[in-house]
Amino acid sequence: MPNTASAKKRLRQNVHRRERNRIAKSRIKTEARKLLEAIDSGDLAAARDAFRGVAKRADRAAAHGVIHANRAARIKSRLSARVRKLALPQDA
Questions:
Q1: From CA 20, how far away is CA 84, in angstroms rounded?
Q2: Domain 5-87 CATH superfamily
Q3: Is the dihedral of CA 35, 86, 45, 75 positive or negative?
Q4: SS3 for 67?
Q5: Distance, CA of 31 to CA of 37 (rounded, Å)
Q6: Exposed/middle/buried for 1, CB within 10 Å: 0-12, 13-18, 19+?
Q7: Where are the domains of the chain?
């Protein structure tokens, strides 16, 4: 346990930030799950809307340092590839 006043404050800040970061990461995962469900159902319009949500959450988390910028780019790249694959004709 912290002994000094500054260490006690740092602990309070860390707890608060850890909770906020956990929520931000969870929201990214939730948006990604919605996107994958739209892709599985074959709904291209819903998939594109859901992708915008995932990209927005990932970019915002990266901007605030919750996740690394490269991780946000990797998430967006992998999911956009899935959306593009859905948009292609099935015989191609």
A1: 32
A2: Ribosomal protein S20 (1.20.58.110)
A3: positive
A4: coil
A5: 10
A6: exposed
A7: 5-87
Check pLDDT > 70 for residue 48: yes
| Span 49-73, pLDDT tens digits | 999 999 999 999 999 999 999 999 9
Q: What is the pTM of this model?
A: 0.86
Handedness of CA 53, 59, 64, 68 (dihedral sign): positive
Query: Of 9, 8, 51, 5, which Cα lies nearest the Cα of 28?
Result: 51
CA–CA dist 66, 22 (Å, integer) = 9
Whole-number percent of the chain with pLDDT over 90: 92
